[in-house]
Design goal:
This protein has 119 residues and is an all-beta fold. 0% of the residues lie in helices and 57% in strands. Strands 2, 4, 5, 6, 9, 10 and 11 form a seven-stranded mixed β-sheet that branches.
């Protein structure tokens, strides 16, 4: 079992920044890939970015490249999503998730945190 708790969402003006945090606990986290997903109202959930605990390899969706950065702090068991140059279309509930490395199957999810970007 892996437990995930997100924080850091809120209301921000377009062009502003927010940093989301995902505190993880449970089984050997080094075996997992951590991902950030988002779901806007009336839309399907979409992948935002991912990072491996073991070696920090990252992947990002094209829609956020150059604006969002995923990182991790192994000592704190926390994954971050730094979001800069926010746009109204970034408004969504953001979820943290965990998948065993090599599976791309995210079995563990946090409760989500709302990010609202006002234009």
């Amino acid at each position: 079992q892996v437990q995930l708790v997100e924080s850091g969402g809120g209301l921000v003006q377009a062009g502003g920044s927010l940093r989301l945090s995902c505190a993880a606990s449970g089984r050997t986290l080094s075996l997992y890939t951590m991902g950030w997903f988002r779901q806007a109202s009336g839309k399907e959930r979409e992948f935002v970015a991912s990072i491996t605990w073991s070696d920090g390899r990252t992947y990002s969706a094209n829609s956020v490249k150059g604006r969002f950065t995923i990182s991790r702090d192994n000592a704190k068991n926390t994954v971050y999503l730094q979001m800069n140059s926010l746009k109204s279309e970034d408004t969504a509930v953001y979820y943290c998730a965990a998948a065993l490395m090599g599976t791309a199957k995210y079995d563990y999810w946090g409760q989500g945190t709302q990010v609202t970007v006002s234009s």
